[in-house]
Amino acid sequence: MSDLPNCPTCASEFTYDDGLQYVCPECGHEWSKAPSASEADLDDGIRDANGNLLVDGDSVTVIKDLKVKGSSSVVKVGTKVKNIRLVDGDHDIDCKVDGIGPMKLKSMFVKKVTS
């Protein structure tokens, strides 16, 4: 049969995959494909703002204007950053931003670019 989960609201088995989420045609409930909190706890990886797992060498896009500390520069929304490197600490992404230079970013302010 289907490997899709049953609807958490009405337990219908007729759910379908709609891109980034599951949908129940019977009750209209929609829910994210993102792993539950317990699954996320098992995985020690670094995740972006949408919950996608990041790895070294990924490309990400900035989702919020970020002021550069000690400068009047700003990293604008939509800035694409290529070839990131994951590091331990509060700012968990080490990268080089075009026009600004090397810097560290928090994963909560980026989203993974999918090819």
Automatic annotation (TrEMBL):
SUPFAM superfamilies of this UniProt entry? Prokaryotic SH3-related domain (SSF82057), Zinc beta-ribbon (SSF57783)
Domain (Protein YjdM N-terminal): give its ranges. Answer: 4-32
* Coiled coil ranges: none
Q: Which domain of life is it from?
A: Bacteria
Question: Which residue numbers delimit the Protein YjdM C-terminal domain?
Answer: 46-113
Task: Provide the family line.
Answer: Belongs to the YjdM family.
Name the record gives this protein? Alkylphosphonate utilization protein
Q: Which organism is it from?
A: Vreelandella piezotolerans
